[in-house]
């Protein structure tokens, strides 16, 4: 596994620490990401998203959804089943898992619903007014503009 040193980036840039940390995290992750449990990521609207995770066999009390800064963490812990069962075929996996998603700036979780063996997590991107594009009026320079400024003063 190859590792990269991002410390020179910290010396030459200001405010890009998060980007370097994200690159470092991506490069140090396992090469084969976990495929359990299966999930979908949908774009519902321009600023709305939904993550759907197949959680068959898990009750709502066994699932946890947390947003930690710019990371969404979904975890499931299966409670011990006291009844002894003998399976002839076991195709439904109910093993514990923890799934992590990196969220973009200004994305927050608005809700989660557990129905029909699926966990749906709704997300919305809310860009603050200060960061939205705004139109800047262009002032004309020339004799008429200077005369208008003098007349206003």
* Gross geometry: elongated
Major sheet details: 4 strands, antiparallel
The CATH class of the largest domain turns out to be: Mainly Beta
Task: Tell me the count of domains.
Answer: 2
β-strand number = 7
CATH topology term of the largest domain: Immunoglobulin-like
Oligomer class: single chain
Question: What proportion of the residues is helical, as a percent range?
Answer: 10-25%
Strand order of the largest sheet: 1-2-7-6
Alpha plus pi helix count: 3
Characterise this structure:
This protein folds into 2 domains: 1-33, no CATH class; 36-152, Immunoglobulin-like (Sandwich). It is an alpha+beta fold. The chain contains 3 helices and 7 strands; from the N terminus they run ααβββββββα. The strands form 2 sheets. A 4-stranded antiparallel beta sheet has the order 1-2-7-6, with no helix packed on it. The protein has helices at 7-12, 17-28, 143-152, and strands at 39-45, 48-54, 63-68, 71-76, 97-102, 107-115, 118-125.
Layout of strands and helices, then pairs:
Layout: H1 7-12, H2 17-28, E1 39-45, E2 48-54, E3 63-68, E4 71-76, E5 97-102, E6 107-115, E7 118-125, H3 143-152
Antiparallel strand pairs: 1-2, 2-7, 3-4, 4-5, 6-7
